[in-house]
Amino acid sequence: MPIILKNSKILEFIDLEGNKFSGNIPTWVDDNLRNLQFLRLRGNLFNGTIPSNLCNLKNLQILDLAHNQLEGNIPQNLSNFKVMMGNVRNGLSFVCKNRFPQLCYDGKKKIIQSIKLSYFNYSLSQLMLMVNIDLSKNYLVGSIPREITMLKGLIGLNLSHNNLTGTIPTGIGEAESLESLDLSFNQLSGPIPKSLSKLNSLGVLRLSHNNFSGDIPQEGHLSTFNDASNFDGNPNLCGSPLPVKCVNENTFESPKIENQDPEEDKWEKWLLYIMIMFGYGVGFWGAVGVLIWKKSLRYVYFKFVDEIIDKVHAIIRWR
Question: Are residues 301 and 166 part of one domain?
């Protein structure tokens, strides 16, 4: 990164996209470029880790480090991005209205931003409304910082095509302004948080090609994502819109015995028949045996039978 920028203490916009800059992102950015609001280093050869002190740029509202060779973890102190948290006024809005209105509202001045899976040309005046983090297509590892859920002013978040692990922070629904969320092509796992249903402005959701498991929540706004490509490539994920249906735990399914031995099955049937015959024999001879060996019971039994027969005959004669 050109060292001459170190002395540009009032610099507010840096766009170095599509060059061959290499090496580490310098740590002096935090100390020397305190007014920076737009940092775009996309499409270069930067390597090493993302300096954690970049998060001290409290006015930064667009951080685009995509398509580089960055490694290591995503910085944890993302809550230092005050504009992204929605705690201070929009920095670009202040610049456009008070410093360089002729530059901001000149339709010929365009800046490309990647958002919602597409590239768009934005004028500086349009960038007033853009708050975006794009770290896609690097070699980042580790988990998604929980602090990212605190960025209530964040509109676009793209962490795709990295090597991120762990789960999606359960409080992701607190980032209430998100319109585009792309976490595809990582190694993320666990269930999809139901809190995503709180993101009513979400227009793009890409969670494909990870290791997510369980059913896809259908609460609230999540029910509108009906394209299976948003979720495919997760072998343990089930439910609409995927063709894999979730197993209802309340449904009883008899276990299937595979590779059953035919000879063993034959002997089981014969054993069942023998048990039935044995039970019938015990019941029959238990009753008959009592009548045979107990004369008093036998006399009562046959007397009862004779009385029944006499009554039947009397009824027949009467009719």
Answer: no
* Contact criterion met (CB below 8 Å) for 104 and 79: no
Check residue 235 and give its pLDDT. Answer: 93
Q: At 273, which helix (H) or strand (E)?
A: helix 262-293
Domain count, the chain: 2
SS3 305: helix
110, 120 in Cβ contact below 8 A?
no
Domain check: are 208 and 276 in the same one? no
Strands 45-49 and 69-71 come out as: parallel
- Cβ(187)–Cβ(213) below 8 Å: no
Classify residue 306: in a domain, yes or no: yes
Q: Tokens at residue 92, please?
A: 């670009």
pTM score: 0.70
CA dihedral (272, 277, 283, 284) in degrees, to 10, reads: 170
Tokens of 192: 């999809």
Contact 53, 27 (CB under 8 A): yes
Query: Range of 170's domain?
Result: 3-238
Minimal CA–CA distance to 159: which of 59, 229, 73, 237? 73
**What is the block-wise mean pLDDT of the chain (319 residues), using blocks of 10 residues?**
85 90 90 88 95 90 94 91 72 48 51 57 61 94 94 92 96 91 96 92 93 91 89 93 77 46 66 74 61 57 63 63
Nearest CA among 121, 133, 54, 125 for reference residue 90: 125
Are 309 and 202 part of one and the same domain? no
At 92 the pLDDT is 47
In order, the DSSP letters of 179-218 are -EEE--SS--EEPPPGGGGG-TT--EEE--SSEEEEEPP-
